[in-house]
Design goal:
Length: 311
């Protein structure tokens, strides 16, 4: 059923400035409105109407960067008065629209989303990545591993628009760095410093990444999800895909486990290099115990959660 959820998300994205009717969505997909409400709750931490409200505000926030007047943006997204837009915006992003326009104001220091413009900025971004991902083994300058300096220099030369960061004065405090992977882009590392949580900066980085990927004619965005981060990506409309791998259990065994633990749609299977059995499931990001069940209860399974979004 995740394919139906994906279609709902795509419809909302396409009609985000329109008055969205759940009945129209249901008729388009051949289901009842009640079924759409229930299905959405399986995959999203919000009801469908709350998701639409939040997605409109995220979309409006994205337009703030264009320099348009806040009053015009508020009208576009269904708010009849600036005060109503202000109240709704602040309730979701914890700052006013004007504060968000500068990303964050602290005294006279202003943070903006920027793209890497030179090698010095790239080195600063990679240094921040080491702080943000202390458990990742970062490679040196040699080689083309995705965590090596050489790899990112080459990706920066191809698509500098996809290496994004934010600064507060001279200090980097957030990043979203990506590269082209076929018709999609892969976000290798994204996140913000702890002190900037609940400011909307992380969301802004991903929204800007999606915007740039779409402008560059890519079809979607993929990224791995750290444990405990499922809700964050689910609220932005990302769909979960779980890769389960085992050298001990066969593909048929993995399918049987799926029937026992969640009976999610099997997106594909494979035997990697002749001995690693793989199964992909279209999962709800809200089923946070599924990874634990495979790795702890069944054992001898390695699980990775990938999220994706069509743009």
């Amino acid at each position: 059923m995740s394919a139906v959820y994906q279609k709902i998300i795509e419809y909302i994205d396409t009609h985000i400035k329109d008055e969205i009717s759940i009945t129209e969505i249901a008729d388009m997909l051949g289901y009842s409105a009640n079924h759409i409400y229930k299905l959405f709750n399986v995959y999203s931490p919000y009801s469908i109407m709350e998701y639409i409200r939040r997605k409109r505000l995220y979309a409006a926030a994205n337009e703030i960067y264009s320099g348009r007047k806040l009053y015009d943006i508020a009208l576009d997204y269904g708010y009849e008065s600036p005060s109503g837009f202000y109240k709704a915006f602040k309730s979701i992003l914890d700052c006013s629209p004007r504060e968000y326009k500068n990303n964050i104001k602290k005294g006279q220091n202003i943070m903006l989303i920027e793209q890497v413009k030179n090698i010095e900025e790239l080195d600063a971004v990679l240094s921040f990545c080491k702080i943000l991902y202390p458990d990742v083994e970062f490679m040196g300058a040699d080689g083309n591993d995705k965590y090596s300096r050489n790899f990112w220099i080459e990706k920066w030369k191809i698509n500098p628009e996809l290496l994004l960061f934010t600064k507060d004065n001279d200090c980097i405090c957030g990043i979203a760095i990506s590269w082209a992977d076929g018709p999609h882009i892969t976000v290798a590392m994204d996140g913000i410093s702890k002190e900037y949580a609940s400011t909307g900066i992380h969301e802004a980085l991903l929204i800007e990444t999606e915007k740039r990927a779409k402008r560059l004619n890519y079809e979607g965005v993929n990224l791995g999800v750290g444990e405990g981060k499922e809700n964050f990506y689910a609220k932005l409309g990302y769909i979960g895909n779980m890769l389960i791998q085992s050298e001990k259990y066969s593909v048929d065994d993995l399918k049987a486990f799926n029937e026992q633990y969640g009976n999610y749609e099997v997106a594909g299977t494979n035997v990697y290099e002749g001995y690693v059995n793989q199964m992909w499931l279209n999962v709800s990001l809200l089923d946070k115990n599924l990874k634990k069940k495979y790795e702890d209860e069944i054992g001898e399974c390695w699980v990775q959660i990938i999220v994706s979004k069509k743009i």
